[in-house]
Write a structure and sequence with these properties.
alpha+beta, six-stranded antiparallel sheet, about 35% helix
């Protein structure tokens, strides 16, 4: 059940629900000690008994808190309330890049600006040994004044750790038949993630390329009717050239 206005999580007062998703609910709140409004992401207590979800939630907090960059969402605090972990971050005003793309491609000048800002944020994370692993328009936020913030480090991992992609090698053959559960969004994940190989910063570079393609064309480079076909496209085919698609260019605008 969503938290109601006036409830306190530690020192933070809840104002309203901003949104909800698979990794929890996000509220607008206030830190009375500093007199500032904040965003509070709460993992429901009944979901925190799932070790996998709890681990990813805690990983998001650790990864994001380790970063300090204008193109990455700033994390202020973490805590637990009645068994439910929460993350406190800066409150953003604007919309996701997904919302920006709802009407189709965006102007090339704007796409290059957003892409450069995303790249700078990723570079800062990579310098700290952190790979995002789930970059997509839903995890990119554009403020009303045109600043880009990368969200969603819940699938991030340290490059130095020995790890495999979200689709394990053992599960790869069955994925081609039924596409079992996948962490991350399939159309944005890299070939090494599909194969279950070890990932590194190039995984994020690949995802950024997909996002840039989508911003420029309003389409995905590897769209297909079914997940197995998307997997085949990612592993075996080259995307079409942006110029061959020749989208109608919209006028320059800010979200």
């Amino acid at each position: 059940m969503p938290l109601t206005s006036g409830v306190h999580l530690g020192p933070y007062e809840i104002f309203s629900l901003l949104g909800a998703g698979g990794m929890g609910e996000v509220y607008r709140g206030r830190d009375p000690r500093l007199g500032r409004d904040v965003a509070i992401k709460v993992l429901p207590s009944n979901a925190s008994t799932d070790p996998g979800r709890l681990q990813r939630f805690e990983q998001e907090a650790r990864a994001a808190a380790a970063l300090n960059h204008p193109n990455i969402l700033a994390v202020y605090d973490v805590g637990v309330h009645d068994g439910a972990p929460y993350i406190v971050s800066e409150l953003l005003q604007g919309q996701t890049l997904r919302a920006c793309l709802s009407d189709g491609p965006i102007p090339i000048r704007t796409a290059l600006d957003y892409g450069a800002q995303i790249a700078r944020g990723l570079a800062a994370a990579h310098e700290r040994g952190i790979v995002h692993r789930d970059l997509k328009p839903d995890n990119v936020f554009v403020t009303w004044d045109g600043y880009v913030k990368i969200l969603g480090f819940g699938l991030a991992s340290l490059i130095e750790q020995e790890m495999t992609g979200p689709i394990s090698s053992a599960a790869n053959s069955s994925l081609r038949r039924t596409l079992g559960p996948v962490l991350g969004t399939l159309v944005y994940i890299s070939p090494e993630q599909v194969r279950g190989d070890r990932v590194d910063l190039r995984t994020d570079v690949y995802a950024l390329g997909v996002v840039l393609f989508e911003m420029a064309t309003g389409r995905l480079p590897f769209g297909a009717p079914s997940p197995p076909e998307i997997v085949t496209n990612i592993l075996e085919r080259d995307p079409p050239s942006v110029t061959s698609l020749s989208p109608e260019r919209p006028r320059d605008r800010r979200p």
